[in-house]
Design a protein that fits this description.
31% of the residues lie in helices and 24% in strands. The chain is of the alpha/beta class. The strands form nine sheets. An eight-stranded mixed β-sheet has the order 12-11-8-6-7-14-15-25, sandwiched between helices. The protein has a seven-stranded mixed β-sheet with strand order 5-4-17-16-18-19-20, with helices on both faces. Bound molecules: adenosine-5'-triphosphate (ATP) and magnesium ion. The site of adenosine-5'-triphosphate has 25 residues, from β20, β26, β27 and β29.
Length: 645
C-alpha cells in the first residue's frame, strides 16, 4: 500500500515555490529553445506574468519537428473514428508533412503571425493539423467546440475576430450526421466580424453551399502545397499560442489566453511528473509510448492532452471520434490493447456510462500496457472511482484543474514520489501552485483541517497558466484576482477543504455552471437563449444532479402570457417550443431536460435569483438560508411546479 504524500514530493513542491526560478529553469530544459530566455518568471506586473521572456521557441517545433531525427518513423497521431469507420496512423514524419501543408495553406489564405484562426471542427485529424499549423506560423488558434450552435459560435467569432475559419462539412454522433456548414454560415451572418476566408474539409457527410470568394475547399489547397516547406516561426515565449473560451457564467465568454514557452514547459513537465510516470523518480522518457485522452479538441483537456502534451513528450496520441459504447462498450479497451496505451485520460461521466454496460466488455482485452487511468473535469464520486478501479485493476488518478490553468492544479505526482490517492480527493497541490483554502468573506486563510472555504491560488501562478482574458486585462484582474476582500489571490470559484494530510476535496463551485455529460454549460447562456422566446418573461436555469449525466438543466419560466397555460397540452407545446429555441441557438447539449412554468421566481431582496435554493428543491434538499428572500411564496411555486408533474 502506498502511503500519503512523502518528503520527496513535499520538498519538490517547496522548492517550486521558494526557489521558483531555479526550479522552472530546470524544467525548461525539457523543451527546445531557439534562443535562451533572459528571465524565468518576470512578475513585475503581477498578476500579469512573463514566463521565460526573451526565450525564442515554437510549440509546433517542440511537438513535431524536434522528434523527427530520433523518431520520424514512429507513430505520432492515431486517428480513430467509429462514426465513419476510419482508422489511420500518421508517423512523426507524416505529421510534419501534413502540418506544413496546412500551414502553407493558411499562409496562402493570408494568415500571419498574431492573426487568429478559429477552428470549428469535429474530431478529425485536420483539426489537429490546423492547431499545429497555427502554432507553426505564430498564428493564434481559437478552437470552438463542435457541439456549439450558431449563437455561441457567433459570440466567439466576434470576440476572437479570426481572419480565417477552419471547419468541415459535418460532424457525426451516434451515426447521425450533424451538418456544421449551415451553423457556421448562420454564425457568420450573425457576427459583426466577418472572417475573410473559410477553409472547409469535405468529409463527404453533408452537402455544402460554398460562398464565392470566401469559402475554400481544403483538399484543393492542400494539393497545391504538397511539397511546400514552411519553417517554424520562432516566437517569444510570451507570444500567445491560443485562446479558448470557457462556458461563461456571465453569458459573455471569457477568452482564456495562453502563452507559448510557459505552456510548452508546463506540459512537458506534467507528462513526466504526473501522467507518464512508470515509477517514482523515473528518469525514463515516455517517448514512443501511447497516450489516449477521450476528450474533445474543443476543451482544454483536448488542447493539453490530446494534441500538445503527448506530442511534446514524443508519444503517439489517439484522437477518437465516437461514443464510448459504439459499436460496443469494449471500444476504448480495444484501442488500449491495439495501440498499447500506457496512460489514459477521461471524465467521470464517461465511466458512469460504461458502468451501465455489461461488465464482460471490460474483460475482452489485454490492458497490460496501461499504467493508470486519469479522470478530470468534475467531481469523481467514490462509487464510480471504486468500480472502475476494480474493473480494470489499475490506479485511478483524479486530477483537478480548469481551462484557466491548462494543466492539473491538484493531483498526485507519482513521477516524483508514489503516493496513495484518497477516494473523493483529487490530491495535493501540484508543484508551482500555492493553493489555499480561505474564508470568502474575511479573506483569511483557513488552517483548520476539514473546514470549508474557497479554493484560491496565491500568485505567481506557474507556467502554462492563463496570461489574461483575451483583449480584456481588466476583466482578468477583476474577475479572478479581486473577488476576495483584502486579498489579491486567484479565485478558482470552487469550494473545498483540506484534510490533515494536506489532501484537498472539492465541494462544488461557487458560481453557476452546470455540467451535462462532461460538457460545461453556463446557466446564464441557457437563460439568455430561453429569454429570446417571445412568450418568456423571466427564466432561471439550474443544474440538477443526475445519476448518468452528472447534471441536467432544468428551466423555470415565468410566461408573458400565462392565460393559455392552464391546460397541460398548451404547457407541453410551449415547453417543446422553448427546447427548440435552445437547440437551434446553443445546441442540443444545452437543452433543459424540463421546462416548468411558475408565477414568480424566488429572488433575493437585491433582485438576485436564488438559483441554489431552486436547485436544492429540485434535488429534494433543504433550500438553506432564506433570510434574504423577497417573496417566500415563489419557492412554494417551484415546489408545486415540480410536484405537479
Ligand atoms: P466557466 O469558468 O466559464 O464557468 P467552467 O469552470 O465550467 O467554465 P472548466 O474550466 O472546463 O469550465 O472547468 C473547471 C471546473 O471543473 C473546476 O473549477 C471545477 O469546478 C471542475 N472540476 C474539474 N476537475 C475536477 C475534479 N477533478 N474534481 C472536482 N471538480 C473538478
Ligand atoms: Mg470556471
Amino acid at each position: 500500500m502506498r502511503t500519503p504524500i512523502g518528503t520527496a514530493y513535499r520538498e519538490f513542491h517547496r522548492r517550486s515555490l521558494e526557489d521558483r526560478d531555479a526550479f522552472w529553469a530546470e524544467q525548461a530544459r525539457l523543451v527546445d529553445w531557439h534562443a535562451p530566455f533572459a528571465s524565468v518568471c518576470d512578475a513585475s506586473r503581477s498578476p500579469f506574468l512573463n514566463w521565460f521572456a526573451g526565450g525564442m521557441t515554437n510549440l509546433c517545433h517542440n511537438a513535431v519537428d524536434r522528434h523527427l531525427a530520433a523518431r520520424g518513423a514512429q507513430p505520432a497521431l492515431i486517428h480513430v473514428s467509429t462514426e465513419t469507420g476510419s482508422e489511420r496512423t500518421w508517423t512523426y514524419t507524416e505529421l510534419h508533412a501534413e502540418v506544413q501543408r496546412m500551414a502553407a495553406v493558411l499562409l496562402a489564405l493570408g494568415v500571419g503571425q498574431g492573426d487568429r484562426v478559429l477552428i470549428y471542427m469535429p474530431m478529425i485529424p485536420e483539426a489537429a493539423f490546423a492547431m499545429l499549423a497555427c502554432a507553426r506560423i505564430g498564428a493564434i488558434h481559437s478552437v470552438v467546440f463542435g457541439g456549439f450552435a450558431s449563437v455561441s459560435l457567433a459570440n466567439r467569432i466576434d470576440d476572437a475576430e479570426p481572419k480565417v475559419v477552419v471547419s468541415a462539412d459535418a460532424g457525426s454522433r451516434a451515426g447521425k450526421v450533424l451538418a456544421y456548414k449551415p451553423l457556421l454560415d448562420e454564425a457568420i451572418a450573425r457576427a459583426a466580424h466577418k472572417p475573410a476566408r473559410v477553409l472547409l474539409v469535405d468529409r463527404g457527410l453533408a452537402p455544402m453551399t460554398m460562398v464565392a470568394g470566401r469559402d475554400e475547399l481544403h483538399a484543393a489547397w492542400r494539393e497545391q502545397h504538397l511539397e511546400t516547406v514552411v519553417p517554424c516561426t520562432w516566437v517569444d515565449s510570451t507570444h500567445p499560442s491560443y485562446t479558448l473560451y470557457t462556458s461563461g457564467t456571465t453569458g459573455r465568454p471569457k477568452g482564456v489566453q495562453r502563452d507559448t514557452g510557459g505552456y510548452a514547459v508546463a506540459l512537458a513537465a506534467s507528462m513526466k511528473h504526473i501522467f507518464c510516470a512508470p515509477q517514482e523518480g523515473a528518469q525514463r522518457s515516455p517517448a514512443g509510448e501511447t497516450f489516449f485522452s477521450t476528450s474533445d479538441i474543443g476543451w482544454v483537456v483536448g488542447h493539453s492532452y490530446i494534441v500538445y502534451g503527448p506530442l511534446i513528450a514524443g508519444m503517439a496520441t489517439i484522437m477518437y471520434e465516437g461514443l464510448p459504447i459504439r459499436p460496443d462498450a469494449a471500444i476504448w479497451w480495444r484501442l488500449v490493447e491495439q495501440y498499447k496505451v500506457t496512460a489514459m485520460f477521461t471524465a467521470p461521466t464517461a465511466i458512469r456510462v460504461l458502468k451501465k454496460q455489461d461488465p464482460k466488455f471490460l474483460r475482452q482485452h489485454d490492458l497490460s500496457s496501461l499504467r493508470a487511468l486519469f479522470l478530470a473535469g468534475e467531481p469523481l464520486d467514490e462509487p464510480t472511482a471504486t468500480w472502475i478501479g476494480e474493473a480494470i485493476g489499475k490506479p485511478i488518478i483524479d486530477n483537478y484543474w480548469q481551462t484557466e490553468s491548462g494543466w492539473p492544479i491538484l493531483t498526485i505526482a507519482n513521477g516524483i514520489e508514489q503516493a496513495a490517492s484518497k477516494l473523493g480527493s483529487p490530491g495535493v497541490p501540484m508543484y508551482g501552485y500555492d493553493v489555499k483554502i480561505i474564508d470568502e468573506s474575511t479573506g483569511r486563510d483557513i488552517e483548520t483541517p476539514n473546514t470549508k472555504g474557497v479554493v484560491v491560488i496565491e500568485g505567481p501562478t506557474p507556467p502554462g497558466f492563463m496570461q489574461t482574458v483575451w483583449r480584456d486585462d481588466a476583466r482578468f484582474v477583476e474577475t479572478y484576482w479581486k473577488s476576495i476582500p483584502g486579498r489579491t489571490v486567484y479565485n478558482t470559484f470552487d469550494w473545498g477543504i483540506r484534510d490533515a494530510d494536506g489532501y484537498f476535496f472539492i465541494l462544488g463551485r461557487t458560481d453557476d455552471v452546470i455540467n451535462v455529460a462532461g460538457h460545461r454549460l453556463g446557466t446564464r447562456e441557457i437563460e439568455e437563449s430561453i429569454s429570446s422566446h417571445p412568450n418568456v418573461a423571466e427564466v432561471a436555469v439550474v443544474g440538477v444532479g443526475d445519476a448518468l449525466k452528472g447534471q441536467v438543466a432544468m428551466a423555470f419560466v415565468v410566461a408573458r402570457d400565462a392565460s393559455a397555460l392552464g391546460e397541460a397540452p398548451a404547457r407541453l407545446r410551449l415547453e417543446g417550443d422553448i427546447m427548440k429555441t435552445v437547440d437551434t441557438q446553443l445546441g442540443a447539449l444545452a437543452r433543459p431536460s424540463r421546462v416548468f412554468f411558475v408565477n414568480a421566481l424566488p429572488k433575493t431582496r437585491s433582485g438576485k435569483l436564488l438559483r441554489r435554493a431552486i436547485q436544492a428543491i429540485c434535488e429534494h434538499r433543504d433550500p438553506g438560508d432564506l433570510t434574504t428572500i423577497e417573496d417566500p411564496t415563489a419557492l412554494q411555486g417551484v415546489r408545486d411546479a415540480i410536484g405537479a408533474t
